[in-house]
Structures are given as C-alpha cells and as structure tokens.
Specification:
The protein has a single domain, classed as 60s Ribosomal Protein L30, Chain: A. Helix 2 packs across helix 3. It is globular and about 45 Å long. The protein contains 7 helices and 16 strands. The chain is of the alpha+beta class.
C-alpha cells in the first residue's frame, strides 16, 4: 500500500511539472508577424524631394538584388525618409515579391514604408541584372525652392524593331522640355548605350529600361523631373502624393481622394499597358492636360488586369 501511494505521488508530481513547463511563456511557439503592405499613397514635401536611381547589379537573384538596391538607396539617403519607389523588374522573377521585400527592409530599418510601383520590363542594360529602383526621398532641407516640373517627352518610333536605337533615343531626349533635370528615365524597345542620356543631362539620375522582350516596332520615349523654374509645368504645391501601381483608374482616384488629392490635381501619370491595342484605348479612358506616359510593358503584378497605372498629384489640403 505504501508503495502504491508513493508511485501515485510520483505520477502526480510529474504531471504537475509537465503542466508548469507547458505554461512557461518561453516554450510557447511564437508566430512571426507578416510584413505590412506598402501604403497606397505616400506624401512628401515638394521642395525637399530628392530623386535617385539604384546602381545595377548582376549578382544573385531578384530578392538579393532588390535588397542590395534598397540598402544602397537607404545609405545614399542618409536616413532621410523614402516616399516612393518605382521598380522595373527584368528576368523571370516574381514582381509581387518586390513590395514584400521593400516592406521587410524598411521595417528592419524602422523606417516608414514608401508607396511602391512595380512593373515587369523586357531588360536592363547589364547582363543578369534583374531589377532597378527609382526612389523619391525627402531631404532635411529645401532643395527645390521653386517646386518641381514633371515632363513627358514625345514617343519616337520606327517600323523595324531591329533598327539602331541611338537616333530614336536622341530624338526622344530632344523632345524633353527641361534643361537640367533631376532624373531622366528613358524607355526603349532595345537596350542601347545610356551615354547619350548622361552626355545630354550630366547632372541627372539616369534610368534606361527596355520595355518588352519582343516589341513589334522600334520605339523610344523619355520622361523627366526637373526643378519648377524650368518650364510652364511648374508644380508649386507644398506637398505631392505618390501612388503605387493600381489596375483601375477608379481605384487610383479613390486612393488619391483618401490622401487629399483628386484626378484634377494629378501632375504626372504613368500607364503600363500590356499591348499596343490596349495602349491606344487609354487616352479615351483618362482625358487629361497633365503629362501622361502610356508605354506597353512586358507584364504587371496582377494576373488578370490589362494595364497598371500610378500617378503623382498635388495635395489639395
């Protein structure tokens, strides 16, 4: 009988110790919090905005290259908040990973999340390069006292997709009504030397992107951001709203309204259709007097949509 009581006591003690061990908070499995989605719209002060383009790298896959480009841009901004990122992805990487990586990196750095635009391009001017990032950050001091100007040049085309790109690119650059831009982005049907851009605009951040892998015609189109004193498109609003890519104008307008802007206050629109026929329908869907670039691209993040769009707008309040 004494043996049985002793045995029962040991069993009860073991059960109690096991229960206490399970209740130890250190032993509870923790669920990692998923990264937050980048905001639909991010706002920056126009007079303090700085524009940068990440250096190309051929090392690693899309995730590594995106992280490396983000870390580089954050170092260059010296802790200044990044308002917006536009990513052009080449290769077979999943473009939907880019906003996730942006969220992860900025959360790790305890930085506010920027809005993110992402598009699948045909190629970049470096072998094995899979992504290039354009960033808009907010400096600690005024760098654009007269505001900003957003400019879209004229599309230059040729019937033969294999024709030399340099003459088309030269004409596209000449159509830009800006003298000393802060950033110039050129979209071409075939990769060419970017020296024509840097020679014409030596002080600008430069981005050169092949839009599609197999375009139906040769084309070149450029857009730029300059300081507001340079032209009639001067934007003097105190703050600008930058949207991420959306797949409908109605959703874009809703996001702008929530941020304090509207369709009438848009100062620059970029539309990324998946084909030339779709591109031809866009002006009828979105009449505007502000600059608008409508350029067919290889792909977008949505599997169902036929185009993506992002915009910059002046805040109304």
């Amino acid at each position: 009988m004494r043996y049985r009581r002793t045995l029962i006591g040991f069993v009860l003690l073991a059960a109690a110790l096991s229960a206490a061990k399970k209740k130890n908070p250190d032993d509870i499995t923790q669920t990692l919090e998923l990264p937050k989605d980048p905001p639909a719209v991010a706002v920056g002060e126009a007079r303090r905005l700085v524009f940068r383009v990440s250096a190309l790298s051929g090392k690693g896959l899309l995730s590594q290259q995106t992280r490396d480009a983000l870390h580089s841009l954050l170092r260059e901004s010296s802790g200044a908040p990044v308002v917006h990122i536009r990513a052009f992805v080449a290769g077979n990487g999943d473009v939907r990973r880019v906003p996730q990586i942006v969220s992860e990196v900025f959360t790790e750095k305890k930085q506010p999340l920027p809005s993110v635009s992402v598009v699948l391009a045909g190629g970049l001017p470096l072998d094995n390069a899979q992504v290039v990032l354009e960033s808009v950050s907010e400096s600690r001091r005024e760098v654009n006292p007269a505001g900003l100007a957003f400019v879209a040049g004229e599309t230059q085309t040729g019937p033969d997709p294999t024709a030399p790109m340099r003459p088309l690119l030269d004409r596209a650059l000449a159509s830009l009504s800006v003298r000393n831009p802060l950033m110039v982005t050129c979209f071409v049907s075939a990769i060419t030397d970017s020296s024509a851009i840097s020679a014409r605009f030596p002080g600008a951040a430069i981005d050169l992107v092949q839009t599609q892998r197999a375009p139906y015609q040769a084309s070149a189109e450029c857009e730029a951001v300059g300081r507001g004193s340079q032209g009639t498109s001067q934007i003097t609003a105190a703050k600008l709203a930058f949207t991420g890519t959306r797949t409908a104008f109605q959703r874009l307008d809703r996001d702008l309204n929530e941020a304090g802007a509207d369709a009438a206050s848009v100062v620059m629109t970029n539309v990324y259709p998946l084909s030339q026929p779709i591109a031809r329908t866009i002006p009828g869907l979105r009449p505007t007097t502000a600059p608008m670039a409508v350029i067919p691209f290889e792909g977008i993040a949505s599997m169902d949509a036929t185009f993506a769009v992002d915009a910059v707008a002046a805040l109304l309040r």
